[in-house]
Write a structure and sequence with these properties.
Number of helices of chain B: 0
Strand content of chain B: over 45%
Distance between the termini of chain A: 33 Å
Structural class of chain A: mainly beta
Radius of gyration of chain A: 13 Å
Largest interface: A-B, 23 and 25 residues
Order of helices and strands of chain A: EEEEEEEEEE
Oligomer: heterodimer
Helix content of chain B: under 10%
Chain lengths: ~110, ~110
């Protein structure tokens, strides 16, 4: 596809359930980021993948959050035992090596924890 | 803590007017300052960006003013149009790495 693709676009879950959010970056982009956007807030950095390097997980808010990137392309963000405060829009972005300062964002996954 | 502080939270401007959004940062290691535009239901999209070696950058109706000594930068939208109605985020990064975002400003342009 032409842009960053995220799925599902909306996810409603019950407190305590696990969820998986998927991100397909732009083909050829080496860097991939996950951010969280809470209502009325800016974007909060969660995790960063760059090529085969170890990911920067410094933004993950708790050990219930994890992410992986398979084959240097698709990434999955997993939230275990979801809590109501996890409700937010989760955004994925990717950037190319030749212009790593430019991040291209997907439309996000809106997660609602009931 | 939030590394980039943005104001105002929202603003309303008449068509043809000027919208001004301000941001301030603390980390002097930041070396890249982009502005992102976000429409409802969409992800943010890069609008314009500046590095600290220049004090101003203009692209069409959008201008960034940068004051390194004050650690402040601002976005000016000239001749605002209804299509500019969106949420604008300032951001900052070091070494073209992860972005620290402001809280966002919702701009409404009245026709």
């Amino acid at each position: 596809g032409a842009g960053v693709s995220q799925s599902p676009s909306n996810k409603v879950t019950e407190k305590g359930k696990d969820v998986e959010l998927r991100c397909d970056p732009i083909s050829g982009h080496t860097a991939l980021y996950w951010y969280r956007q809470s209502l009325g807030q800016g974007l909060e950095f969660l995790i960063y993948f760059q090529g085969n390097s170890a990911p920067d997980k410094s933004g993950l808010p708790s050990d219930r959050f994890s992410a992986e990137r398979t084959g240097g392309s698709v990434s999955t963000l997993t939230i275990q035992r979801t809590q109501q405060e996890d409700s937010a829009v989760y955004l994925c972005a990717s950037s190319p090596m030749r212009a790593k300062n430019i991040q291209y964002f997907g439309a996000g996954t809106r997660l609602s924890v009931l | 803590q939030q590394q980039v502080k943005q104001s105002p939270q929202s603003l309303i401007v008449q068509k043809g007017g000027i919208s001004i959004i301000n941001c301030a940062y603390e980390n002097t290691a930041f070396d890249y300052f982009p502005w992102y535009q976000q429409f409802p239901g969409k992800g943010p999209a890069l609008l314009i960006a500046i590095r600290p070696d220049v004090s101003e950058k203009k692209e069409g109706r959008f201008t960034i003013s940068f004051n390194k000594s004050a650690k402040q930068f601002s976005l000016h939208i000239m001749d605002s149009q209804p299509g500019d109605s969106a949420t604008y985020f300032c951001a900052a990064s070091r070494d073209d790495y992860k972005l620290s975002f402001g809280a966002g400003t919702t701009v409404t342009v009245r026709a």
